[in-house]
Structure formats: structure tokens, C-alpha cells
Amino acid sequence: MVLLKNLILRNDTLKDTFKECSSEKMDFLINGISSNSKEIKKGYIFVALKGQKLDGKDFITEAQKNGAVFILAENLKKDNVISLKEGMSRKVYSLLLSCFHEKQPKQIIGVTGTNGKTSVVEFCRQIWGQASWKAASMGTLGTKIDTSSEKNNILKSNENLTTYEPSRLYKQLHFLASKEVSNLAIEASSHGIDQHRLDGIKFSGAVFTNLSHDHLDYHKNIKNYYSSKKRLFTHLLNPNSSIAINIDDSYGEKLHNELNKSNHLILTFGKKEEADIQIVSSNTDNKSIDLTLKFNNKIFQTTIGMIGQFQIYNVIASASICIALGMDPDFVFKSLGYLKPARGRMEIVSDNENKSLVIIDYAHTPQALLTVLSSLKHFAKGKIITLFGCGGNRDIEKRTLMGQIAYQNSDLVIVTDDNPRNELPSKIREDILQGCPDAIEIGDRNSAIKFAVSKLQDNDLLLIAGKGHESTQTIGMESLPFDDYTVSKEAIKNNKKLG
């Protein structure tokens, strides 16, 4: 609980929002803030947000009946309603929540890019943990906390969002700070940035991994998509923050050029000679990668226990931001050899007796699928079998393109379902098959995985792509239990029984 006058003193935008309130109202006790009228209780502030299907303005009466002391809505001249300018409601909502749940970890970094966000926040948390700092990561895999004495998952997400909704986000930031977490890495999705969910976070650092075709159903074009990502660096960072940018990516190079005159400390990484942290060489086998790196004219060598060339960029991205924030480079580079991959990211299920490999990966964009398959080609000794699908009610354009990529980089392609949601699954598969007409189509993902495992021969490699860590399959409005790892593990076991 906090008096309104004390709450708004914490942010200039909020001072301006409530400037017309009487001195009497300034002494109102605020008990909570929500955009859900059903959650409103006595002493709450209700912010009417417009969503894809519902408009919060239609629930103002319900919020008032439930005890809302203030109603905020865009362009609504009405008694007892504070009218906000067009496009300001989501920003104000996040700022209110961040000021109400005031505590945040001292050092917070945001990681954005089409691919790699989950791995980078996971690796940052692990590096900080190796330094015995109380650290956490937040994103697709939920909120994870890591200290020298405590390793567990906390507050697992059921929203299925990369960047949490503000009501949950700022409560968790407060919780982590109350648990004395000092360092936090957050996945910053383009949706989350564009919808102002992160506007109340005190960021001291940010990472740009890459940018490629994804979410164009939301952003309409790649220019808007890039602009959303860029906003993390131009609008959300504190002054004199630290930034790490992949300059091997064309949009990373563009971002670096556009930020070069800012007051931030920028460390670039990549294979280019001008990169601050240069990837000099890498040698891959089927279980690890030997790396040679160059920083400040000094050579560092390490071996990371992962597969996939793209993991090199994720590992170096985490190292770059940690060094930019002031960690000792020698310690950071030594710590890379102890990193473990994130759940569902190039995750090896098990070795079959015939030395074939089954790998689970979250790749669900054209660039991610191409990157994973290109990496696997480096050490594949037998055939490459790729099993994947595309999500329903999502970017349609990428389906045929992903079919083409799978066809061009695999010996056998199996097209199956991947969260069809409210679309007709057969139509989604049909779109994919336009890019790989010779693929085998098996709609039921369980049957598809069992079939794929049964086709593995000596030294073959099966990539099960798209769902990664996910533990459900969304069909229609239902989310049914389903886990690629569990199903494939069981399929391998049954194959062994059958000889």
C-alpha cells in the first residue's frame, strides 16, 4: 500500500498523468494496480488497455463496482476517468506497476534478437553464478535463480510469453530484489518492447544477438521489427549503460553504427577483425567446440561442451556483456568451459547404440532452422533427418521458406504439427510442403517422432525442431501435455527393445 502522492513522485511521467488530481485524491491509499477488471479490489487503480479481442473501456463499470479509486483510459472524457493520450496507456501501466513494486535487482540486462535470447540470458546467469553472485534469468523458460548454494527454478511461467506481462513482471522483479538477487538477465522480445512492458525497468545493459524473418504477422515488415528491437537501446537503457552487439549480423552492424555516438560503453563481437571480442577460430566435434578468441590483443582459448556453431555466438554474447559490465575478462573466458546449454536448445536426447544422435532444438524461424542444420552438417557422418512443423495463427510467410530450408539441408524431411492452435493443421502442413514436396507428412507429432527414430541408421542424426523446451501442444483452445524430449526418449527405448 502507498499514498498516490508518494507513488507518482517516483516517476515524472506519472506526475504529469495525475497533475489534475485534487490534493484530497493525492492522499488516497493505493492497494494495487491492474488492467483486469476482475482483479480490481478496493483502493486499486484500473488501467483500461485495448487488446486484440477486448477493450478495457468496456469493463470500466465493473472495475468501479469492484472498488477502483482511479480509472485510466485513452481518449475518454468522462467523469472519474483520467484521460490518457493515444498510445500512452501501456507505458503508464508499466510505470505504475514498477513504482508500486519498487524494488528491482541492482544490475539488469535485456537481451533481444530473433534467435539466441534464451541461451544468452541462461549463460549470463551461469557466469554470474560462477562468481558466487546471486543471479537470475527471466524469459521463455520461466524465472530461474542461481547462487553458489541454491540452484532451482522459481515462479515458472504459464503465460507462454518470452517477455512477461507487466502485472507479473514487476512483482517478480520486486521478489527477486527482496531475495537479494543482484544480477538479472531478461529476454526482451520485440512484442514486449513495442508494447511498453519493459518501460519501468532500470536497465544497465543490453545485448543484440541478430535479426531475421519472424513475427512479421505482428510488425508487418522488417523495418518495424528492427525499430522495435532498437528501442531497447535508444529508449530503455539508463545513461552510460553497457551494450554487446553481434556485428557479424547485418542489423547488428547497422545498430552499432547508429549507436556509435551514444554515451554507452559498446563491446562488439563476431568473426570480423574489427570486433572487440573476435572469434578467431572454432573446431567442432559431436560433443564440444574448441574456441580461440581475441580481446585487447590477447588470445584466449577455451572448450565449450555444446554442439552447434551458432552456440558460439550465444556464448560470446554473454561473455561480451559480462565484460562490458566490468567483470574480469580472464575469469569470464575461463568460465565459458563450464556453461551448460539451455533446455531444448541443441539438447542431445541420448546416443543410440548405432551411434545415431537425436537432438531437440527450439528453432522455429527460417534463419534459426538454417543455422541449426548448417551447424549439424559440420559433424554429421550419416544422413540428416529433420522433423518440424509451424505454429498456427502465426507468421504464414515463413512456412514455405522453412520447408525449402529443411529440404535443401536434410536427407529426409518429416512435416508434422507444432501448436496448430485455431488453424486447420492440414493447411499449415500444406503450406510447408510447398517448399519440400518430397517430405513425409505425419500430422500427429507423437507418431511422427516415433517414425523418425525408427528410420535412424548408423551415424544418422535426427533434428526435432520447433518446440524445444515446451511441454504442451496447443490444438484449438486446448493445451495438451506433450514434450519432444520425453516422446523421443521413449521411442529410442522401444527401438532398443525391438532390436
What tags apply to this protein structure?
18 helices; six-stranded mixed sheet; alpha/beta; 35% helix; 499 residues; UDP-N-acetylmuramoyl-L-alanine:D-glutamate ligase; Udp-n-acetylmuramoylalanyl-d-glutamate--2,6- Diaminopimelate Ligase, Chain: A, domain 1; eleven-stranded mixed sheet; Protein-Tyrosine Phosphatase, Chain A
Overall description:
This protein has 499 residues and is an alpha/beta fold. The protein folds into three domains: 88 residues, 3-Layer(aba) Sandwich (Udp-n-acetylmuramoylalanyl-d-glutamate--2,6- Diaminopimelate Ligase, Chain: A, domain 1); 232 residues, Mur-like, catalytic domain (UDP-N-acetylmuramoyl-L-alanine:D-glutamate ligase); 152 residues, Mur ligase, C-terminal domain (Protein-Tyrosine Phosphatase, Chain A). Helix content is 35%, strand content 25%. The chain has 18 helices and 25 strands. The strands form five sheets. Strands 10-9-8-11-7-12-13-14-15-16-17 form an eleven-stranded mixed sheet, sandwiched between helices. The protein has a six-stranded mixed sheet with strand order 18-19-23-20-21-22, with helices on both faces. It has a four-stranded parallel sheet with strand order 3-4-5-6. 49% of the residues are buried. About 1% of the residues have low confidence.
